[in-house]
Amino acid sequence: MAGFFDKLRQGLSKTGSGIAAIFTGSGIDDEFYEELEEALIMADVGMATTDKLLDGLRDAVAEKKIKERSEARKELISLLADLMRPEKPFLDGTNRAVIMVVGVNGVGKTTSLGKIAAYYKNQGRDVVLAAADTFRAAAAEQLTVWAERAGVPIIKHGEGADPAAVVFDAAASFKARNRDMLLCDTAGRLHNKKNLMNELEKMRRVLDRELPGVPVEALMVLDATTGQNAIAQARAFGESAGLTGIILTKLDGTAKGGVAVAVKEELKIPVRFVGVGEGIDDMQAFDPDDYARALLSE
Length: 298
What we know:
Layout: H1 2-11, H2 13-22, H3 30-42, H4 47-63, H5 69-84, E1 97-102, H6 109-122, E2 127-131, H7 139-150, E3 154-155, H8 163-176, E4 181-185, H9 193-210, E5 216-223, H10 228-241, E6 245-249, H11 259-267, E7 271-275, E8 283-285, H12 288-295
Parallel strand pairs: 1-4, 1-5, 2-3, 2-4, 5-6, 6-7
Antiparallel strand pairs: 7-8
Helix pairs in contact: 1-12, 2-3, 3-4, 4-5, 5-12, 6-7, 8-9, 10-11
C-alpha cells in the first residue's frame, strides 16, 4: 500500500534522517563505519544488532568491491530486511485464528486492537472482539467505541468480571456464527504480575479447550518511543505470556524506530503490526522490506 509506505517513511524520518545523512558522503572508510555505528545505536537498534549489521555490511562491501555509499545503502537495506524477516508467516496462512493482545497500561493496547479489527474487517474477515480487560475502568467502553468505528461486534461483561468468562462467551459467539477472527483485549495490570500471568494462562486454557485446532497468537503492544525500555517490557512478559509477536506503536513520533530491529534480534520475537498515526487505518501488517527501505530512505 503506497499510502501506508509514505506514512511509514514519514514516521521513521526522525529515526532515519541521522542514518540517511551518512550515505550522502563519498567514499567508504573507517569514519563512515564509525558514523553509521553511532547513528544505529542512537536509533536504539542496540549494540549487538548494530555490530551484526556492520559486520554483514563490511563483508558485502569487500566481496562486491563496493566504492559508493549509495550502493552500501542498498546492501544495508537488504541486510536489515533479512534480519527483520519472520521465520514463519503470520498465523501460518491458516484461515480461522485468535489474537490475544497484551501489554502494560498506557502503550495503546486497546486502541491497537480496535485498529487491527478494522484491518481484518477491511480484508473481508468476520471479526469479533472480546473485551477481556475487565480490570481497568472504561476499558470495555473504549473498545466498544473502536468496535463501532470498525463495524465489528463485541462481547463484554461488566467491570470486575472474570476475563476468562468473557473469552468463553466470545469463543461461543465465534463458533455459533462461524466467525474467522477473534481478537481479545487483556488487562495491562492486575494487583501483581503473578495475578496477571495467571489470568492470561487461564484465558489461553479456555481458548484451547473451546476452540481446539484454532491457532492463538499472543501479540504484545510496545510503544516505540520508549526505545530499549520496550525490550525490557517484552522480555518480562515473554517469560510467562508465551509471546509470538509484537505490535509496535507510535513509530511516527520517535527517533528510536530502530527498536523494532532490537526486539526481533535480541528477543527473537517478530514484529507483526506497526502503527504510524492516530487514524483507524494507520495500523498495518509489518513488512520487513518496507520497514528497511523507509528507515534508510533518502
